Amino acid sequence: MSAAAAAQSQAVLSCPLLDWFARHARDLPWRRDRTPYRIWLAEVMLQQTQVDTVIPYYERFLARFPTIAELAAAELGDVLKVWEGLGYYARARNLHAAARQVVARSAGRLPGSYDELLVLPGVGRYTAGAVASIAFGQHVVAVDGNARRVLCRVFAVTGDVTRSSVQRELEELAVGLLPCGRAGEFNEALIELGATVCTPRAPRCGECPLAGECQAYVGGDPEPLPVRRPRRRVPHYDVAAAVTLRDGHVLVAQRKVEDMLGGLWEFPGGKREEGETLPECLAREMREELGVEVKVEEVLTVVKHAFTHFRITLHAFTCQLTSGEPSCLDCAAFRWVAPADLEGLPMSVADRKVAAALQAAQGQAPDLPLHGNPS
Ligand code: ADE
Fold it and tell me: Which domains does the chain have, with CATH numbers?
């Protein structure tokens, strides 16, 4: 293709897309202020989470940590606390670690090039491209799941979109469309179109600025694209957790930072193994994790929770310590805390529900000592 023909085919798609975006872009908090830190934070939060869920977290996070320097100076626990409920906590740990790097190496200024961004913890091809183009005006693409869907449909790409070779092919197609001097706008426009018009189910092709050029639309059936290999069935685990009270305080443990949900606090326990009852499982876990023997008493609550690759049913039992004093054999830390102070610790959604059940049970029966052993 000649340079002129390439420029023309680029313009055929990018011009109507940019015009559409100018008229239909949603008014979102990260579009009001293009400070690199704010763009970076938004893109990290948006990686696995819907816009509506992100907005209140984004605003709270910035109110608490308005600059990279303030984020870097914070304790990880305080960052996790503000992130609590948003999920994928590695994002918060990486953001915090990256902020510390940026402060140590470049006086709190986020690097402006794609390649330098890419080496920061938690920054992959998508995030580096989004920050470099939106905050720094670099001529690079940022192709997320929404943009991939649009590109698969427009170019009738039928490969499995979960494969990295197909993702690279889509990035190449996006590079071919990138308008000079407007890469950030183009990237956001493609994402916006995917999020609001070119949706997974029932796309609104009648409102799409690219419909006339869209091979899937012209072919009559855009919905089956993109193609992805069928998801594997997610396994289910039963997990037991101990709510152990003593002198009005409950025993909680902090997960090791390198583990899933690392840095969060939990009611200690773990996965049931084959052939074990839940009380046997809990007694074993308390021995392995904290070096104590417990008597497992009653079920306090049962919570179901779905993670990306598995589901759990968390069975929380009231327990009594029968021997030993806790020590951290397989956790980052442990504490005895007043139930009212659990609110201050970062916890996963499932453990937070157990904390709420404990407070509700104590509210109904304040001396449900939960068998607190005055000692
Ligand atoms: N999803 C990922 N990045 C986004 C952005 N900048 N605006 C809206 N949704 C997004």
Answer: 3-218 (1.10.340.30), 236-361 (3.90.79.10)
